[in-house]
Structures are given as C-alpha cells and as structure tokens.
C-alpha cells in the first residue's frame, strides 16, 4: 500500500508517522507542501506539529498550501486521508471535515497519555479494533477542543461518523474524562464518505511497547487490510 506524508514548515510529527507507516510495510513518500503533484497514493497523512508556527489559527496557513489542492482532489476521488492533531486542524480549515478545533478549555497546552474509546469500528481506519475498545493514546495540543453546530453534531451521530471519544480507564465518557473540553468528548470524526479521518490523539506514537504501547498499531493495520 502506498502512502504519502505531507510536510509543512513546523511539522514535528512527520517523521514519527513515516516510521510507523514503514514499520507497518507501507511504501511511503514524504511530500513537501510546495509540491503541486502527489505521488500515486492509497493513503495521505497530514501529520501533527505546528505548521507555520500556528500563526493566525492552527492550520490556517497550511490549509492554503499548494499541495492541498491535490489532497482535496485525491479525497474527492476516494483516497484515504488521515489528519492527526495539526492535521485534523488543517482538514477543518480546508473544509474536508466540518467543525473546528478551539483552544483547550483550560487555555493551556496539554501533553499526556489519555484514554479514548472506539465508537465506530466499521471503517477502513478502525476495523481491527473492537467497538467500545479502550485505547491509551498520547495527546499534545493547544487547540484540541472540537466544536461544531447542532446540525452537524446530529449528522455525526446519525451517520455514525464519530470515530473516537475521550473516556476514562473504565470507558466512562464524562466531563472528568474530557481533557480539552471537546463537544461530547469527541476525539476523532469522519467525513460522510468515511474516507477521511481527523483525530487529535497520536496513534503513530503508540506502535512500540519499548517506548509507549501498541494501541496505535491497529489503526495502521486496519488501513492495510
């Protein structure tokens, strides 16, 4: 399976994603944001980091980069798109995903491991997980507070487009298990065609027991299968 990782000035998780993809046997290429053509790709990853230093808004400048036009075209043709952290923010800036990511509720940068629950395992991104499975995944963001209007929220629920929610170690979803104030504890969403996933947690950081755990592995193995 062929993958491409988009790299922006300020990206700091692009290499982490590349390591995860290559470990899972993807044939990966790194694509600089000024490129105007994408390699043939089955999966495009927009990684985490602080593209353009998060000036204006997180992801706002990156969302206007030259390569984004090609990403939008690929998405419309059914290519799988994964946006992680800043990548999720960029996807909302481009309109590939609805909603927005606001400042964390405590107005502070958060970097810690949290628990998330698999809400929908009937997607190409999550089918190797069990529905309701609890994962321990790292988050590292200042603007991870997902918000959208009531119409879109109902659409997310009705069409089963909520991929993951923040929870506690027992799987309880409540205010106490919500690290950033996200609407209804939402940690990741899909588009209506379910070929685009945006998520704030970093699955690429959870692929090795030695440095963390392997809770992120099944996201990549889901894509492979």
Please, could you describe this protein's structure?
- The protein is of the alpha/beta class.
- It has helices at 14-23, 66-76, 86-94, 150-158, 217-224, and strands spanning 2-7, 27-32, 43-46, 80-84, 100-102, 110-118, 134-141, 145-147, 162-167, 186-190, 196-199.
- It has a single domain (2-224), classed as Rossmann fold (3-Layer(aba) Sandwich), CATH 3.40.50.880.
- The chain is 21% helix and 26% strand.
- The strands form two sheets. A nine-stranded mixed sheet has the order 2-1-3-4-11-10-9-6-7, with helices on both faces.
- α1 links the parallel β1 and β2.
- The longest helix is centred in the first third of the chain and has 11 residues, at 66-76.
- The model has no long low-confidence stretch (mean pLDDT 96).
Give structural attributes:
Rossmann fold, 225 residues, alpha/beta
Summarize the structure.
The protein is an alpha/beta fold.
Mean pLDDT: 96
Structural class: alpha/beta
> Secondary-structure element order, as H and E?
EHEEHEHEEEEHEEEH
CATH superfamily: Class I glutamine amidotransferase (GATase) domain
Q: Report the radius of gyration as a whole number of Å.
A: 16 Å
- Strand segment count: 11
**What percentage of amino acids are in beta strands?**
25-35%
What is the CATH first-level class name? Alpha Beta
Largest sheet: 9 strands, mixed
CATH topology: Rossmann fold
What count of domains describes the coordinates? 1
Name the CATH architecture.
3-Layer(aba) Sandwich
